[in-house]
What we know:
- Helices cover 45% and strands 20% of the residues.
- It is α/β, with parallel strands linked by helices.
- α1 packs parallel to α3, α3 crosses α11 and α4 packs across α6.
- The longest helix is centred in the N-terminal third of the chain and has 46 residues.
- The protein starts with 9 loop residues before the first helix and ends with a helix.
Amino acid sequence: MSSSAKTPDSSDTTRPRRRRRRWLRRIAVTLVTLTGIVLSIYAVLRFVYPRWVSTRLPPDAPRIAFSLDNSLIGWIGVTDVTYQRVMAKAGGRLIALRPDAAGDPEVDPQAVETLLETERIDAVLLAGGGDIDPNVYGGQSDATMLVHRLRDDFEIALIHAARERGLPILGICRGCQILNVALGGTVRNLREEPDVKAQHFDLSGHAVELVPDSALAEILGVTGLPKVVSLHGQAVGALGAGIRVAATGPGGVIEAIEADTAIGRGWIIGLQWHPELTLDEKIQHNVFRTLVNRARKTITH
């Protein structure tokens, strides 16, 4: 009696293995390709674009110290490119600084002063990023995000050094808050006020009212803006010494502050919203043009 058992064909076992190998090769190629694309984007945003912008500026363009965002977006270069674009249009050359630029894991105020001198800085721009460490201003540590104490200490030292030298300073979003904290103020945590936070952490934006006799109202040429780009979970709290409110928004949130605007040297403006992200360049970008013009006066003095 003959057996009906069938001898397995070797092709039955090799075909699945070949298919698996093909899929593994495809996955590997895809990963390598994606990695190459990401690295290319990183190189363009962090190195190529800033250098290209720099070559289009005159040699005597004011040098604006730019304290960089420590979040992932900041490291990739998105923040850098955004500000490079608007500041170049305003005529300023951004000089990127990071918290360890003074040379130590801890901030030495004297080293920060020396950094301003060696980099020939004419003005300071403080950008957005994570929350300020509540320990700096005596706040509560709950509901904070992306706290980076080294950056806090560096920027506070940078603000004091720049103010001492009479340099103009512009703060955007977190930059507005750190300006207030550096001068003895506090931060208001909007995450404890969900209804208010919902109005301020929203790409659709909101309106702001400017104080009519403020320096900011004079710079922008209006006493109100129907819509600003707003993405923040915290805001200015109690005002620091010499700080005055320049604009407010929904929920009584302080949307802009200013100081030293009436004296000959120095100039401090802080905006809680993001004028660099707006299409309303004719009005809101005046604040960048004013920073550069003030920086030019610093050079002449």
